[in-house]
Amino acid sequence: MTDRAVAAAKLDQLMARGRDFLGCRYALLGGAMSWVSERNLVAALSNAGAFGVIACGAMDPQRLAAEIAGTQALTTKPFGVNLITMHPQLLELVQVCLEAKVTHIVFAGGIPPGPAIKAAKEGGARVICFTPALSLGKKLVRSGADALVIEGSEAGGHIGPVSLNVLAQEILPHLRDVPIFVAGGIGRGEAILAYLEMGAAGAQLGTRFVTATECIAHARFKQAFIRGNARDAVPTMQIDERFPVIPVRALVNEGTKRFMAHQAAVLQKFQSGELSREAAQLDIEHFWAGALRRAVIDGDVDGGSVMAGQSVGMVTREAPAAEIVAELIDQAVAALMSRDA
Ligand SMILES: Cc1cc2nc3c(=O)[nH]c(=O)nc-3n(C[C@H](O)[C@H](O)[C@H](O)COP(=O)(O)O)c2cc1C
Questions:
Q1: Are 275 and 135 in the same domain?
Q2: Pfam families attached here (predicted)?
């Protein structure tokens, strides 16, 4: 049995690269979640020693500036901002982050344009990008990414096709130039420890932080997470290959059922000539517009989009962010302690 202090020091050492990169106590990123990751949750995570990240989503520059200022009023610790690359005002949003002295910018939702990476770095921020594959990861590093996130299909929200288990094996042994954070389906400290030992610099969790006391999500949204099991968190399904649907992992509800019926109805209209292919595709894409907000803010967990990772089964209660972070760290330390010295 390893001594607790020895185990804690070992975990600290495994987290050193990620922690130094982020400038916080634990190499744990609070994955940005649209509508959920606003000032309260972000500041609570950073105050707890993790690294909170604001989800900019569709916010305009003014709104983002206010959110950053609001977060800075609640914490003196570093935090990041997650920007969606297809936002039409991406460069202005980068500027807002730089003016507010945000230390880390996370580019999500696609390959970030070169000028955005350049502007962020020249302005003194560190750039974090997502990579779905080793080759693209290497390219992003050459383009200036200071760190990468590999997010497996177990994650909540928009997902790629490959699990974290496989991505970690494909990428971690081969890309050592920058810190790599793992995400998707992580709910316990033992898993964080395992990925650190495989070479990850740290982990990014979303779902586990939704039920933080400080999180402003509607009580019904949090309840859905507490009740949900891994098998309830499934990707949106596409019924016809001509009309692609971007997979989003969310809890099954009336909305997901209606989406299937909606696709079938649109398909029929397309086949009868009532809708053009473009109009049909747009119709399908628009189905979920505003659905995450309805679930998170209004508490419409039946019709809205209750985006959640497979880790949802490990969400059992509402608790302060600091308690959730401490629990994850304790689990990793306990796993190290249970080994022979
Ligand atoms: C409700 C919800 C909203 C999300 N919104 C975003 C987002 O706006 N931008 C982003 O990069 N990732 C988003 N994600 C993904 C998280 O940042 C994170 O990578 C993911 O939750 C990790 O998997 P886990 O949920 O199993 O921990 C979202 C996830 C959830 C559950």
A1: no
A2: NMO
Give 248 Cα–ligand 1 centroid separation in angstroms: 10
Distance 337 CA to ligand 1 centre (A): 31
pLDDT at 90 over 90: yes
Taking CA atoms only, the protein residue closest to ligand 1 atom 20 is 206
Q: Which of 28, 29, 33 to mutate to test the pocket of ligand 1 (most atoms within 8 A of CB)?
A: 33
The finding on whether 147 has its CB within 6 A of some atom of ligand 1 is no
Q: For 181-209, how does the pLDDT look when each residue is reduced to its tens digit (9 = 90+)?
A: 999 999 999 999 999 999 999 999 999 99
The alpha carbon of 157 and the centre of ligand 1 are apart by a number of angstroms equal to: 5
Residues 84 and 232 occupy one common structural domain: no
pLDDT at 1: 60
Token pair belonging to 227: 């009740």
Cite the beta strand spans of 152-265 per DSSP E: 157-158, 180-183, 202-205, 233-235, 248-251
Q: How far is CA 284 from CA 47, 271, 307, in A?
A: 41, 15, 18
C-alpha span between 254 and 276 (Å, rounded): 27
- 192 with 297, same domain: the answer is no
Are the beta carbons of 247 and 235 closer than 8 angstroms? yes
Cβ–ligand 1 distance for 187 under 6 Å, the answer no
- Is the distance from CB of 288 to CB of 259 less than 8 angstroms? yes
Q: What are the strands, taking DSSP E only, across 58-146?
A: 80-84, 104-108, 126-130
Domain contains 315? no
H/E element, 82: strand 80-84
Q: For residues 305 and 296, what is the distance between their CA atoms, to the nearest angstrom?
A: 8
- Which atom number of ligand 1 is nearest to the Cα of residue 307? 1
